[in-house]
Amino acid sequence: MWTRFSLLVLCLLLEVQGQDHADGRYIRCQYTFTVDSPVESSCNNAMEAENLSARVTLLEAVVSRVLGAEAVPETARTLEETEEIRQLLQEKEQLDVQVKELQRRVEELTLETEKLRERPCSSVTKAFQEVKAEVSELPTSPKVQKNVQQDAGCGELVSVSEPETHQKASSISGKYGMWFQGNESPGAPYGPDTVWRIDTVRNDVRELYAYENLEQLARGYPLKVLVLPEPMESTGATVYRGSLYYQQKRSPTLLRYDLIEEKIAAQRELPHPGFHGQYPYSWGGYTDIDLAADEKGLWAIYSTEKARGAIVISQLDPDTLRVTRSWKTNIQKNKVANAFMVCGRLYTVASYRANSTTINWSFDTTSEQSKTVDVPFRNRYGYNSMIDYNAARRKLYSWDNFHMVTYNVTLAKSGSSP
To answer: Signal peptide: which range, if any (predicted)?
Structure first.
């Protein structure tokens, strides 16, 4: 009786333990036998032995079933790892092929380089000529193209036309003044034909008139009137690349006024210049510092104590107004009526009053040489207070005793006839 009961309990325990350890790798089976007291026999008859044998067989079957269930996931994992290893081996074979191909290519390039080095420098292959042609045809930047276009046709001034009158100032404030057409449009609302005008006979010169074109200037209808934040000195201003450049009143300070932003964009003192009547042109008018623009850039024409009144030319950075280079001439500033720059050369006018006068001196900033010239020039109205060169239009703009006039100019290469 006790024997049967013990075997039954043992089987139940084995089934529970097999389920609890299904996720483990091993199952531990513990056999427990309960025996009768010494008085009783463990197997008192053959029937009990057969029953015990049957139950042991059943127990072994249960254990085998549990072990079989545990082996399946292990087999699956082994198959997955085998497949992954196979794929990695395939990738390695592909990479080996690529490495060999690259090594072969490196060897070919090395041999080709050695052959090129062994060739004489004087020999030029057809392939090199084709590459050279392609490089020479690469488009240049807009800024470089613009400078090349402006320099094209540059030369010495050989003649000036008769003056053409465009407008006459109607009030006493317009006896002296300045007017310009920019080399390019600064942007809306101004166009490439915009005309700029400043009347300079007043206590504080601040008003800058803008006209749509020459026709509107002649009619007297300004497009806009700008009020400068700082008053200007005399008639030495100029317009260049969208800005008005001028000298501040009673000061050696130069100002760059942005015509679109309508504000001072840069300011800087000119190094040691005479100003406010120290070294003016022969007609006076506090014309100590004269700003000019041409194909080569922005310039300041003035004198210093060190130069003893002789004209000094300084090229300016148009953005910062910093002096990039200076030249001292042997031309006395108070002995000439006015001056302007053309293609990097300074030209001076002999008289501001004489109806028929001449452009009498030139100084070349490239050769650093000055010479006398004799180009006829007319002051039609008898008091020329401003002359400014426009590189884009190849014209001189002048303010002659209330009148706004222009002159066409002719340039010629050095040593050639016009």
So the answer is: 1-18
